[in-house]
Amino acid sequence: MTVILAHAGHWTSSLVYLTPVLLIVAALAVQSVRDRRAGRHPDQHSEPTLDDILDGKKRK
Amino acid sequence: MRRRAAAVAVTVSGASLLAVSTANAHGLVGKQDLPVPTWLFTWAAAIVLIVSFVGLAMLWPTPRLQDVRERVVARIPAIVPALCGAVGVAALVGLLYAGFAGIQTDDANVLPTSVYVVFWVGLAFASFLFGDVFRAFNPWLAIGRGAGWLSRRLAGDRLPAPLAYPERLGHWPAVVGLLAFAWLELVSTERGDPSTLAFLVLAYVAVQLVGMSLYGTRAWADRGDAFSVYFGLFARISPLRWSERKLSIRAPLGGLPPMDTPRATVAFVAVMIGSTTFDGLTMGEAWTDAAPWMQDRFATLGLDQDVALQAAFTVGLLASIAAVWGLYRVGIAGVRGVDGRRSAGELAELFVHSLVPIALAYVVAHYFGLLSYQGQAMAFLLSDPLGDGSDLLGTASTAIDYNWISATGIWYVQVVALVVGHVAGLILAHDRAIALYADPRQAVRSQYWMLAVMVGFTCLALWLVSGAGS
């Protein structure tokens, strides 16, 4: 690992490419904390079954 | 060991280009002349994706791609498929002969360029532009069909029916085939040797013929033949569909939502994207730092230096594929956050078609430069396929024109391909979510993490093709 770290200065500048992803992930993390505090549950919505979808029934 | 010996700098008209000197070259990284830093393109692409996501949420309230209509525009005479198959078989035989009998250097023998540039890259471009052309010209499929026709003529009713294709096999044979090809192209030190390549092509054909004889030509081509599956997936993006002697048109991307997702479909797409990712990664400094370190570790286990380096590259290839698979599973975990009824595996199969345009975008971004330049080599290689000084077509003295597109031009093609490919992925995922969930808000919420994944794939690809790591 020594070799990689010795050259870290070269490739850490590439992290600027990662910034948009980090911003979106941060926004999503904040949103999911808010959702948890608001008590929303994943299964609160009614939805068609997989068989309905595969049969082409789009909506109830 | 020959690593990346293919890329040589060529200065043309004041712009620096990177070109290839050998047939088994990989993706290219050019030195562009851009008005803004390349990382700014990444930010702009991310913004485009976010705006597209919002636009889809507001303006795409009902599914439109789940069951697209096709319109027949032409009938294909019965002789055409047979002719195309015969052309494919003739090309295969000719290339195998060149591989075994021609000069044993990768840039003077026609076989390596035909396999790595025309077949691997060119057919991917042709598939999304013109539909599944590979199926028409697939030589082993033509041989299998011909053998089947002959067997029926000779044996009649005594010929046993093919076995039912095992569901548990799914796309696994295709995954193994694609991974083996990726290993040959990206890891093996023998990848450019014409006779070795010809032998491997022959071995692949033999395996395909065994598979087709066991399970039938169609079942095997649809599921077990790596290249039929690979090009077939890209062809589903195309508005053109060739089937049962009919040419139909449909909405672009419309072929993807109805696609079958047998077992290992996700693994297959992960190999598609992961292998291209690794090819780009190997041109960057992060990898050139890491590879010798890994090589030393393998060498301490008693491997010689060449084998140790191949082992390091194998680890890198597998790690890249695993990383792509993991990134996708993050998006699926996000979908599962609003859909606790389906398993992660089930959701992964339901949304995997949205990765196909991304796989294509990676191919275009990574290999467009290679196809643009090295593809021209076919003019002189076809005229002198054995490299023995012949001039069959009168084009043996032609040269590659590096002027027709600059590195900056290639960069813009790459950026556009990546943005369009990822927006297409977003559209497909959104359309599937709208079809799955009764509440449009739930559908949009299910895609939040998928958006993050798409932005992640975009940033990764732009980082790779920008040469930021090199």
Overview of the structural elements:
The complex is a heterodimer of chains A (60) and B (470). Chain A is mainly alpha-helical. Chain A contains four helices and no strands. The mean pLDDT of chain A is 67. Chain B is mostly helical. In chain B, the strands form two sheets. Chain B has a three-stranded antiparallel beta sheet, with no helix packed on it. A two-stranded antiparallel sheet of chain B has the order 1-2. In chain B, helix 2 (79-101) runs antiparallel to helix 3 (110-130) and helix 12 (305-336) runs antiparallel to helix 18 (448-466). Classes of the chains: A mainly alpha (60), B mainly alpha (470). Chain A binds chain B through residues 1-4, 6-7, 10-11, 13-14, 16-21, 24-25, 28, 31-32, 42-43, 45-48, 50, 53, 56, 58-60, and chain B through 39, 42-43, 46-47, 50, 62-63, 66-67, 284-286, 289-290, 292-293, 334, 336-342, 346, 435-439, 442, 448-449, 451-452, 455-456, 459-460, 462-463, 466, 468-469.
